[in-house]
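Minutes, project check-in
Item: structure for the 143-residue chain
Input as provided by the requester:
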Amino acid sequence: MKALYAFVVAAVVTACASIQPAAVQVGDRCLRCRRAIGDLRLAGETIDRLRAPHPFRTAGCMAKYVKVTPAQELTAVFVTDYRTGRMLEADQAWFVPTDLPVADSKRTEADYLAFRSRADADAARGNKPMLRWTQVVAEVAGN
């Protein structure tokens, strides 16, 4: 299984060389869960093999999609640096598990904050682990 994730990451890194993320907007609908994107600092985006961008509400939602999507369907995977609001390739980010409030509910859902800098992730993590993208994808439940 680790070899599959390593292959996916290698394919994405190679393909990302000339691909840039499109601007995700507040109110865009997440490709996987169809909920509106409310916080751009949590958003992610995939670029498919036809170079069409697809927004995601959070890194965790996108990881669930990536986990069940054949690697050859994805050209690039981007997440937003929680501190700066700028997108970066998912495999270059550090992730910190977090609990996000669910709109119109008193419950929370497990997800991830992405950071470009390991120091920023370390400052935000408290006693939680820091993860890389392959670990996030391996950890999430399926679609």
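Outcome recorded: The two ends are 17 Å apart (CA to CA).
No further action items on this chain.
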